[in-house]
Amino acid sequence: MEKTTSFKGLIVWQKAHLLALSIYKVTKNYPKEEVYALTNQVRRAAVSIAANIAEGYKKKTTPNKLNFLNISEGSLEEVKYYILLSKDLEYINEKTANELENLADEVRRLIHGYSKSVSINKI
Q1: CB 117 within 8 A of CB 123
Q2: How many domains does the chain have?
Q3: Would you call 73 helix, strand, or coil by DSSP?
Q4: Which among 66, 82, 73 has a CA at the least distance from the CA of 110?
Q5: Contact predicate 106/22, CB 8 Å
Q6: How distant, in Å, are the alpha carbons of 57, 66, 75, 90, 122 from that of 93?
Q7: Domain range holding 50?
Q8: Would residue 2 count as lying in a domain?
Q9: Of residues 71, 62, 78, 74, the one with CA closest to residue 23
Q10: Residue 16: closest CA among 103, 112, 122
Q11: 56 or 5: whose pLDDT is higher?
Q12: What digits encode the pLDDT tens for the residues 58-82?
């Protein structure tokens, strides 16, 4: 079923990468005192989503692939919390928070769908 030759061909990875880029863009404006705290944490979690999708792509067994997708899901939930925290701390406005949350929800749905496909098709 998997017709891509690289993780870059996966829509789920493309959207996760877009989320990471979006997080980097908005966190450029966070207060300087957050550089080694919230800014670093949210960026690392966002990168982890796409990175684990990429790493899982080349794993040979279904359980191994699913494990990396599960790690991506955990990192995604972490990012969703950081978006909420950033909004509550007034580092981002409501509109930006909603845009990031919508993109995060899309990534969540795509990871879920990809995980189901991996499970069913043993890819």
Answers
A1: yes
A2: 1
A3: helix
A4: 73
A5: no
A6: 35, 35, 22, 6, 42
A7: 7-121
A8: no
A9: 78
A10: 103
A11: 56
A12: 999 999 999 999 999 999 999 999 9
User: Is residue 73 situated within a structural domain?
Assistant: yes
pLDDT by residue (tens digit) across 100-117?
999 999 999 999 999 999
Question: HEC states along 15-66?
Answer: HHHHHHHHHHHHHCCCCHHHCCCHHHHHHHHHHHHHHHHHHHHCCCCHHHHH
Q: For the domain that residue 57 is a member of, what is the CATH number? A: 1.20.1440.60
**Residue 91 included in any domain:** yes
- Please give the single-letter amino acid code of residue 38: L
> Residue type for 29, please?
N
pLDDT in tens, 22-41: 999 999 999 999 999 999 99
- Residue 1 domain flag: no
Give the span between the Cα atoms of 110 and 60, in whole angstroms.
21
Give, in degrees to the nearest 5, the angle at Cα 77 between 75 and 83. Answer: 105
Contact of 41 with 82, CB cutoff 8 Å: yes
- Length of the chain equals 123
Taking the C-alpha atoms of residue 81 and residue 38, their distance in angstroms, rounded to an integer, is 11
Answer whether 75's CB lies under 8 Å from 48's CB: yes
